[in-house]
Specification:
This protein has about 425 residues and is an alpha+beta fold. The chain contains 17 helices and 10 strands. It is about 50% helix and about 10% strand. The protein starts with about 25 loop residues before the first helix and ends with a strand. It comes from Streptomyces durocortorensis.
């Protein structure tokens, strides 16, 4: 197998930090060496990451790139241990790990929950929940007006909306978030990873049983009905896997997006003032945040079904490949020499890839945009002087190189 490459990083592969950390300095260094780089993942599993915007766009839509783990050579050879922290991304059965007809079958039902009409129907719920959470945010603040925005606002908003869409009782929300955090963590021990997966399956099986006994106007009930009407539509494993992926993707990414947007605005007050004065829109803030500080840094996995040459670098067949969204967002070849600058008036550069590209483009993108725009507009309308309560570099980072954000966001609501 030819693995030759002009990439000078080939002999010193990048090791993404399992404990997370800010990715941008490493991304800039790697991008200076090329669009594709070898990586060593936890457990000494070798893979590749696609970092450059143009290379990633090509890779995401390439006909010889698969998502099904049957193409993951090391996994099929029995070289991946149970409890490997990234194994769920490869082995969970659902839309994000399916190809071809299976992917189209699963996506066709899910798409009905994310139509423009359905998202618009959710708008009153999003607006009302946002307003209620802001009232609770103020009540949770200390005497000097400091409160953790991530815990009390950026988290419960998307979790409440996605669970409303799925028909998941509020009693499960906190546990599902905790388990989601463990599943996307890259610094977790094998026993903890396996326990989190087992418990997530147990919780979601209980959700499915509740919706089977008492169907409602929700996506889980619709998936169960489709399975019962036609046994080929959804297998039990696909139902649970789809619920798991929808909950994780449906709240973790929007949670990070809102958190990162607030951080960006607080550290770029001129940009915030521009929006508050009507010189730019909250939608502009969301799109620039998606580009500049993507809520996902490295997303696992895709696998070439043949040796694939991308921007001069060979990615061998069966290699697990990470999609480097945070790196692609600051690629100067696509976004200009000032790609590292947060600028909500940015025009004339390539559109970001942070919501994906090709057949697996994020189905929940319209809902994520609605939630984030609503959250930012109401937040800064009610608290225009809101600012970080600690220096931005001191904020503790998310314990994962998959997600890209901070664990807490202490803010002072009023100046």
């Amino acid at each position: 197998m030819n693995t030759s490459s002009p990439n000078p990083a080939a002999d010193r592969p990048h090791r993404p930090d399992p404990a997370g950390g800010c990715p941008h300095a490493a991304n800039a260094r790697l991008l200076a060496q090329g669009s594709v780089t070898p990586v060593v993942l936890p457990g000494e599993v070798r893979g590749m990451a696609v970092l450059g915007h143009d290379a990633l766009k090509e890779f995401l839509a390439h006909p010889d790139v698969a998502k099904n783990a049957q193409h993951f050579a090391a996994l099929q050879a029995g070289e991946i241990a149970d409890g490997w922290p990234l194994k769920t991304f490869a082995t969970v059965q659902g839309m994000t790990t399916a190809d071809g007809d299976d992917h189209r079958r699963l996506r066709s039902l899910m798409s009905k929950a994310f139509t423009a009409r359905r998202v618009e129907e959710l708008r009153p719920h999003v607006v009302e929940l946002t307003s209620r959470l802001l009232t609770g945010l103020e009540a949770a603040a200390t005497e000097d007006g400091v409160v953790d925005l991530r815990t009390h606002f950026a988290l419960p908003l998307p979790m409440g909306v996605i669970c409303e869409l799925l028909g998941v009782d509020e009693a499960h929300h906190d546990r599902l978030h905790h388990l989601s955090n463990q599943i996307v963590a890259t610094d977790i021990e094998p026993a903890e990873a396996m326990a989190a997966n087992r418990e997530m399956v147990e919780v979601l099986s209980a959700v499915a049983a509740a919706r089977t006994a008492d169907p409602g106007n929700d996506l889980t009930s619709a998936m169960i009905a489709a399975r019962e009407e036609d046994g080929d539509r959804f297998s039990p494993h696909e139902l649970i896997g789809t619920l798991m992926l929808t909950i994780i993707a449906g709240h973790e990414t929007t949670l990070n997006l809102i958190t990162n947007a607030v951080r960006a605005l607080c550290t770029h007050r001129d940009q915030l003032d521009l929006v508050l004065a009507g010189g730019a829109s909250w939608a502009d803030v969301v799109e620039e945040t998606l580009r500049w500080d993507s809520p996902v840094s490295y997303f696992p996995f895709r696998y070439p079904t043949r040796d694939l040459t991308l921007d001069g670098t060979v990615i061998p067949q069966g290699t697990p490949v990470l999609a480097g969204y945070s790196a692609a967002g600051r690629d100067t070849r696509a976004h200009g020499p000032d790609a590292a600058r947060f600028d909500i008036t940015r025009t004339g550069t390539s559109r970001h890839l942070s919501l994906g590209h090709g057949a697996h483009y994020c189905m929940g993108a319209p809902l994520a945009r609605l939630e984030s725009i609503t959250a930012l507009e109401q937040l800064f309308t009610r608290f225009p002087a809101l600012d970080l309560a600690v220096p931005e570099p001191e904020l503790p980072r998310h314990a994962s190189f998959v997600g890209n954000s901070v664990r807490t966001l202490p803010v002072r609501l009023k100046g």
